[in-house]
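Listing S7. Sequence submitted for prediction.
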Amino acid sequence: MTKPITQRVKSKISSLSDGVAFASNSFYFVNANKNSIEKELSNLTAQGVIRRFRRGIYYKPQKSSLFG
């Protein structure tokens, strides 16, 4: 059985280096619903895990030694 979309998206994001930009379509896994992936990216944006640069383009923010 495959991992849920949430775990798959979080796993892929955690493997990225800080400051790296990525397109939402790079998360379109086999047998995954596009809307589910977009919703998960939106949730992670709201949580501050990633940031949205523009429609369909996100990035993993860099951690600051001053601000955490």
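Caption to Listing S7: primary sequence and predicted structure tokens for the chain studied. The chain has one domain: 5-59. The chain is about 35% helix and 15% strand.
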